[in-house]
Amino acid sequence: xxxxxxxxxxxxxxxxxxxxxxxxxxxxxxxxxxxxxxxxxxxxxxxxxxxxxxxxxxxxxxxxxxxxxxxxxxxxxxxxxxxxxxxxxxxxxxxxxxxxxxxxxxxxxxxxxxxxxxxxxxxxxxxxxxxxxxxxxxxxxxxxxxxxxxxxxxxxxxxxxxxxxxxxxxxxxxxxxxxxxxxxxxxxxxxxxxxxxxxxxxxxxxxxxxxxxxxxxxxxxxxxxxxxxxxxxxxxxxxxxxxxxxxxxxxxxxxxxxxxxxxxxxxxxxxxxxxxxxxxxxxxxxxxxxxxxxxxxxxxxxxxxxxxxxxxxxxxxxxxxxxxxxxxxxxxxxxxxxxxxxxxxxxxxxxxxxxxxxxxxxxxxxxxxxxxxxxxxxxxxxxxxxxx
Length: 388
Known about the structure:
Rossmann fold, cell wall, cell wall biogenesis/degradation, signal, hydrolase, EC 3.1.1.-, 20% strand, alpha/beta, single chain
């Protein structure tokens, strides 16, 4: 049985720690989402007008999104979820990416399942079920942040333009009348939600409540098991390949190396819009790709820990240090009452997109209902209550 602990720390006004004990009980993002015939499937809309704005995917095709209309009390409320899917950190990798739906809209699935935060059932997504819900497809390879091109390689790095073109299309479809709006994203899309958060807020008048949430997007600038910096090497490649030094926040790039500004910990304190950080302290993607990737784990001793969370005592000690570093990196951010933080202790990645982690449906006295309630409490500024 899972044990859930849920409390607020008054000394850190925006910080909530939600600890899921019995680590092995939380499934990874790549496992089944429990989909069935009753899951909402939403069709793809292509933004044809984006081509004239140069807002195109890596291969030059137009971007796309999936829209499910809201109704009733949610008819004028909007959730925008930015799709994740890693990055391309070299010309060769970006060219390979063109041959997938993450680099070309011609290869995107025509329908996607809406689960978790995008679920349309009140019993499974009580706060947001009847909002307008949008999933923006990711096809630029740099978290919706690039604005350059490589003509020789026939690559378009136009993520920022894609974001703005899709938002313009949605504004014309009713989003400009929004009373409440939430920009979210998972994984590299969670990083996108941080990078584009203030841009999103600037689309609306002051009368609209606008907030952002990053799910599994808090990629930590961490030392790997070999003593190196695997994720730094990847991010340096992304920034240099797509010229992100020209689009990342100048408040950051003016005093540290531009590629470091792709790490959320160096930019979140400058985000003006209310922002919620949702992440696992034992993030499964970061364990396997940042902390103990094969390039850093030559002996393969971390394989079981990285890919199935079967870790030795010494490995768990290392991972506990990683989790504490994550919490430490969020201390200043969490002192701003407008912000929220939810760090879980399960082996997971992208928890707002999974029904079993977003709203597991626990009921009864003294039992927490999961991540959905914590996010709802923050968004709607409901009174925080201590429980265990």
